[in-house]
């Protein structure tokens, strides 16, 4: 299983809320996160921050993309790079 460290994002969100004068709550933090973090992890992170002003390391499981998704992504990248290369070649001529 692949995991992703979301500690930095959590810390940034909590710090930003504090700078805005807002008390970090589960709802406010969850609303600003781009990653999906389980509720128990959010609760323990906010408690830790309130007690010691630090965010513990939090990792969440990341769903691995299917082979079809990976192929589609690679095909889109190849298409974009081909277009960019054609534009560069046109400028050089």
- What is the distance, rounded to the nearest whole angstrom, between the alpha carbons of the first and last residues? 49 Å
Number of helices: 4
Helix share, percent:
55-70%
Specify the biggest β-sheet: 2 strands, antiparallel
Percent of residues in beta strands: 5-15%
Summed up, what is this model?
Helices cover 65% and strands 9% of the residues. The chain is mainly alpha-helical.
Give a topology summary.
Elements: E1 2-5, H1 7-19, H2 26-32, H3 39-52, E2 59-62, H4 67-92
What key attributes describe this structure?
single chain, 93 residues, mainly alpha, 2 domains, two-stranded antiparallel sheet, 4 helices, 2 strands, elongated
Description:
The protein is mainly alpha-helical and 93 residues long. It folds into two domains: 1-62, no CATH class; 65-93. The protein has helices at residues 7-19, 26-32, 39-52, 67-92, and strands at residues 2-5, 59-62. It has a two-stranded antiparallel sheet with strand order 1-2. The longest helix has 26 residues, at 67-92. It is elongated. The model has no long low-confidence stretch (mean pLDDT 89).
